[in-house]
Automatic annotation (TrEMBL):
GO terms for molecular function: fatty-acyl-CoA binding; flavin adenine dinucleotide binding; glutaryl-CoA dehydrogenase activity. It comes from Microlunatus soli. Residues 16-127 form the Acyl-CoA dehydrogenase/oxidase N-terminal domain. This is Glutaryl-CoA dehydrogenase. It comes from the Bacteria. Residues 239-385 form the Acyl-CoA dehydrogenase/oxidase C-terminal domain. Residues 131-226 form the Acyl-CoA oxidase/dehydrogenase middle domain. Keywords: FAD, Flavoprotein, Oxidoreductase, Transit peptide. Belongs to the acyl-CoA dehydrogenase family. InterPro entries: Acyl-CoA_Oxase/DH_mid-dom (IPR006091), Acyl-CoA_Oxase/DH_mid-dom_sf (IPR046373), AcylCo_DH-like_C (IPR036250), AcylCo_DH/oxidase_C (IPR009075), AcylCoA_DH/ox_N (IPR013786), AcylCoA_DH/ox_N_sf (IPR037069), AcylCoA_DH/oxidase_NM_dom_sf (IPR009100), Glutaryl-CoA_DH_mitochondrial (IPR052033). The keyword Transit peptide applies. Its cofactor is FAD. The lineage of its organism: Bacteria, Bacillati, Actinomycetota, Actinomycetes, Propionibacteriales.
Amino acid sequence: MPLSPLELLKIDHLLTEDERDIAATVRSFVDRRVKPQVADWYDRGEIDLGLVKEAGSLGLLGMHLTGYGCAGTTAVCYGLACLELEAGDSGVRSLVSVQGSLAMFAIWKFGSEEQKQTWLPRMAAGEALGCFGLTEPDFGSNPAGMRTHAVRDGDDWVLNGTKMWITNGSAADVAVVWAQTDPDRPGKGIRGFVVPTDTPGFSAPKITKKLSLRASITSELILTDVRLPADAVLPEVEGLRGPLSCLNEARFGIVFGALGAARDCLETTLAYAATREVFDRSLGGYQLTQAKLADMALELQKGFLLALHLGRLKDDHRLDPQQISLGKLNNTREAIAIARTCRTILGANGITGEYPIMRHANNLESVLTYEGTSEVHQLVIGQALTGENAFS
């Protein structure tokens, strides 16, 4: 009997029973709630926000955090959940990972007790949605150059600036916004602010006409004289260490998540090749097709072993940022290559919405470059290897 793409190495045997149960639960949720509808969401450029409360009821939001209503699972369990979510769609995984690994993690790691009590239980339950405002129109890979700034006015802070490409932005109840508070210290005076989105001066117009991540809300954040009380600032961090540590949490989820999109492409392609007849025999019976399938299965399994190794390191508190870069660089690069190769096997059928291949491929174009482009991760790895900073 044909094997599934991850069975050749008996990878399931490397997981604990709890890990397999969580993966199966999330896969069932995706099969029931996401896959039947996601092609229509993608076509319309929207996502059903009812997923937020449903994900909260399953304990998926901030699931790797402890306390405040969070599930407190392992990093590997969180990674497996990301894989299963992205097998549905990258936009669904983005919704969950931005909520938990960016917005919630920033408050959980660096917030005051009052900020944690105010926001985290509601966010874990899916009763409040968060976003993370770091990237700007002119500053993506170089966040130290951000122009969004915050100045003191009496006991208050006043924020002005613009953020771009913000997942969940126009639907969020709270935004974690990073701003420069000391223009004489670029990159050093950056502080995080917890900004309720109903604060006067805050707006989040939705970005439209996207050709990737269409089943996801992407927005611009505009802050015009947004006045916040002194206790809106995240008290436990200053400088780029804050937002970059949050990005590492989210990048870890991508290391697993990208494999979910690749697996769904490969599973779809295996089923297609078994039934599609070309010259009176199945497409899967041709040597060139089997060579493609073998190479893709190999890279998928290697990527999973890498992700699982990084997850075990993270659970053992031994994971370094450059190791996350290794995982993000490899697994997003291989996932998009798998999606593109699967498309060639499906031929013209591969570009239709009847199959998920082109949707995954388009989404992975974004996953490849957001939260650190491949070039940025290459430089992180290069610096680790040589000790030389080649960023500038």
